[in-house]
Design brief:
nucleotide-binding (chains A, B); 22% strand; globular; amino-acid biosynthesis (chains A, B); 37% helix; Acetylglutamate kinase (chains A, B); homodimer; acetylglutamate kinase activity (chains A, B); Carbamate kinase; AceGlu_kinase-like_sf (chains A, B); eight-stranded mixed sheet; alpha/beta
Chain lengths: 265, 265
């Protein structure tokens, strides 16, 4: 049986609140076995950008990354947030190592081609088989926990702002060639809800047939559909399970408990 | 015979000039064997701080690091400079990995005790035998080149602003337990000068007796004395040679050529 790995992605609702973050990092440090943390940080980047006289430019919910914005997110994601997460995990005896996709060429990417919209210095990752899995495996052997900021690079000297969900799923798929991977997306709800108005209506287990049935009925909140489609795509590429749930329940989720929505084939 | 390593420290005169930096990174990527890069970045941090309405606070030539300044240098050293150096080295097929002393707990430190002056969040590194040499050795085996920003941590969750020269010498001493280490300080002159006014008066080789003699005569520029005392201290702790020279001559220096001032016991 291959070694288990949890790839855990956290977003703004964890990073933007000091108490939530403290609690999450304590829980994360106690998750047994090899684990990988992936973080964004858009809200904090926007706040710091404002101090520097920059307004975020958004198109279709995505940040447009001009040269100044790339500098900003490199400072905030790669420096401020990433290195503080590392220091705070070290204080919890979790041997964290901060990374971007550029470091050890872990996640090669390319600048998104311009079609209707020029997103600027935004990265689309290359196929998961380009990920430097050998390096990540050597970290696992040493008990080192990688913490990824949402940045990649083009191999030609430029960093690229990259969607953190995509980084998490790319890493999860790549690691599936050697490990049994659980991909966990922490978000602001307890899981995927049957009824958006009812926090207790969490779907505990989602499989392809049931998902198709719910989609046909229009029973799933439209905003969740891309996340779920991506989850099933990751499963088809070898990830063992995807769980969408609340960061406050990360220990139960990582232990394979009842919390969150567990998605499997 | 043990494997050779070059630990190379660059300062403002390389980082602050795009042409110098491009040239240096190309030369650095061509230095054969295992190598470690250490960088500062004070001038750029001060410039970005000004955009955010912050004025640098200096006492006795050292930056006082209040909480906001710690955020600033974490963004600039750990993010902007470090990750761009990594991306630019990757473009030169040098498999760089950006690090602070917090990552993989490579360089433990403690906050400098307050005596006459409170330097704030400034780190004094623990003894070199606390450095995580096993991790650095595993990088060497994988052909990965660590790039260190001048930050350490206290093991209790706080990052610490730390002198880049000290980080370089601490790493050099620590690595000397397993490798044959050359410690190279790049600065704005071609080497230690016998006559500060004369750029051609480089001392090519400095050994303890000659150094004592020059010191007695008052023949060495006062500003160089702490750097040279530190160099001899590193040699006494196992470093093979310390070279002080011009970044533009890094290839000759790393190859053991005539450039720079070579300091040995």
């Amino acid at each position: 049986m291959s070694t288990k790995i949890s790839v855990i992605k956290i977003g703004g609702n964890v990073l933007d609140n000091a108490d939530n973050l403290e609690r999450f990092l304590t829980d994360f440090s106690l998750v047994p076995g090899f684990k990988v943390l992936v973080h964004g940080g858009g809200t904090i980047a926007s706040e710091i950008g404002k101090k520097m006289g920059m307004e975020p430019i958004m198109i279709n919910g995505r940040r447009v990354t001009d040269a100044n914005t790339l500098h900003l997110v490199t400072m905030v994601y790669g420096g401020l947030l990433n290195k503080n997460l590392v220091a705070q995990l070290q204080a919890r005896k979790c041997n964290a190592l901060g990374l971007t996709g550029a470091d050890a060429n872990v996640i090669p990417a390319h600048k998104r081609p311009v079609k209707d919209i020029d997103y600027g210095f935004v990265g689309d990752v290359e196929s998961p088989d380009q990920v430097n899995v050998a390096f990540l495996a050597s970290l696992a052997e040493q008990g080192i926990v990688p913490v990824f900021a949402a940045l990649t690079h083009d191999g030609e000297g430029s960093l690229l702002n990259t969607n953190a969900d995509t980084i998490a799923s790319t890493l999860a798929v790549a690691l599936s060639t050697r490990f049994e991977v659980n991909l966990i997306y922490c978000f602001e709800k307890k899981g995927v809800l049957l009824n958006v108005e009812d926090e207790t209506s969490v779907i505990h287990h989602l499989q392809p047939n049931y998902y198709a049935e719910l989609k046909d009925k229009g029973a799933i909140f439209a905003g969740m559909l891309p996340k779920l489609d991506n989850a099933f795509a990751a499963l088809e590429q070898g990830v063992k399970a995807v769980v969408i749930g609340d960061a406050a329940e990360i220990q139960d989720i990582a232990a394979g408990g009842k919390a969150g929505t567990r998605i499997t084939l």
